[in-house]
Amino acid sequence: MHLVAVPPRIRLLCLTLVVLAGCARNPVTGGLQLALITEGQEIQMGQQAAQEVSSTIGLVDDPALQDYVSDLGLRLAASSERPELPWAFAVVDDATPNAFALPGGPIFITRGLMDLMRSEAQLATVLGHEIGHVTARHHVTSLSRTQLAQIGLGVGGILFPDLQQLGNVASAGLQLLFLSHGRDAERQADDLGFRYALDQSFDVREMGLVFESLERFGEPSNQSPVPSWLLTHPAPDERIQSVGQRLEALANPLGQLRIGEQAYLDRIDGLTYGPNPRNGFFREGLFLHPDLRFQIAFPAGWQTQNLSQTVTALSPQQNAVIQLTLSADSDPEAAARSALNQPGIQVGQTSREPVNGLPAVLATFRAQTQQGTVDGVMAFIAYDGRVYQMMGYGPAGSFASEARSVQESLVTFRELTDPDALDTQPNRIAIVRTTETMTLAEFDDRFPSVIPIEELAVINQVEGPSILLPAGSLVKRVVES
Length: 481
Prior knowledge:
- By secondary structure, the chain is α+β, with helices and mostly antiparallel strands.
- 41% of the residues lie in helices and 22% in strands.
- Helix 1 runs antiparallel to helix 6, helix 6 (138-159) runs antiparallel to helix 7 (164-178) and helix 9 (207-217) packs antiparallel against helix 11.
């Protein structure tokens, strides 16, 4: 095969033609926008991702709360530039304060952010911001830039074959970079969220309080798959100032606009606050699941994470991982056959000895993957009408150093019998109306919370314990269930 050098101007022309062919009118600005993805593809992509969010993170089991958020979101979206999209709004069961939009209409807000806010107006500005990302097609622009970058890298790889491997690595990095909304996109989403909320007669002066609360809340320390708002959005200080500038630029005084404090607080009264231990929690090296009544010990020093449908542990050297999931099969033998009879898997030693009195099948394996050869061990354990599938694996060249730790961990699966762990309940929001003027510190003395008073001040959006709360104030406290 003969390679012919392509002049730089020809390569630039090719890329220019791709860009011109992939331009469309932005629904918000009316200007040209890079769009190599059709609206149909945008919708399909978002709906597939939404299904993954629902299954991986899980939704809050509160139909009334879900309907409340959905009704408000649909009302805002109906007055946007893209009312015809299949909009969907849901609250995910995660304690990290955040909200995020997916291409084509799915929008999620976390339980943690619902706990942090105090009014319908605040909720409206948050949902409006996420709606703005969708109406302005920010995801489409980011994904199109990624595609364009890959086209450029592909041309380079053909012209210079020695750089092909480097090009593949760079392309993955560019995807992560471009799929993060830039500062200008976030500013535009803030502008749109402000306008959408105002169009529905919500008091947009509440918008700045959300940013202030998020800044004060800081970085959570829970085992969350959702990044904090501070990692996915610009600095709150700038956004708070921008809210003030938008308010000053309004041609007409705001007048009587809806805050909706009582309606909102009534709806989150009783909502879980913080991590929900009924979904499983870590304690002193053990993972305990009260509802499913089992426990397992992961290797010391490994990084653990509890998701909706899986629990994972990553070795300190990142050369081995353990995953715990439920099998779809009804007994360990069938589960083992389903997992180990897949193409590319070579089965090693197999045993059918009980694990802590529970029927089990254990097997070592080697598998060929796109990332290379991996070695590992699987365990399939029957307990309480379910089959639990545990798999520990890593690169063939380095897994041997972790194999013993993995095997020892898998056989620690057992019934949970600790009464304290079985009875563990989540903390919840409780709303109290004060009957007299008092400081937040006096309120906490009279109506104690299980969280520090500094955190109580944040979720009530007051500056500190010495702030006076007028008689008749609605105040959040956090209590044990």
